[in-house]
Amino acid sequence: MREPDRIIRLRTVLSRTGLSRSTIYRKIAEGTFPPQIKISINGSGWHESDINRWIADPVAWRPKREFDAV
Fold it and tell me: Is the pLDDT of residue 69 over 90?
């Protein structure tokens, strides 16, 4: 059985990527960084697998399409 994908918060994403907060949000707007997911009314995070895919190849990263499911 597959382990569930963890949700990581902004502080962890900043640490793992080495990017600044403003750069992350700019890249999200450009479509070159994984978008956040809403986890509560005031909270959001990222799927850890999406961030790991981006770190592995930031230049070629593209959003996963629904039919590209693992």
Answer: no
Q: Which amino acid is at 69?
A: A
In one letter, which amino acid is 54? W
CA distance 18 to 54: 12
How remote is the C-alpha of 28 from its chain's centroid?
Answer: 9
Q: What DSSP designation does 60 have?
A: T
Question: Do 51 and 17 form a contact (C-beta atoms < 8 A)?
Answer: yes
Specify the pTM.
0.82
pLDDT digits (tens, 9 = 90+) for 26-51: 999 999 999 999 999 999 999 999 99
Rounded to whole angstroms, the Cα distance separating 59 from 33 reads 10
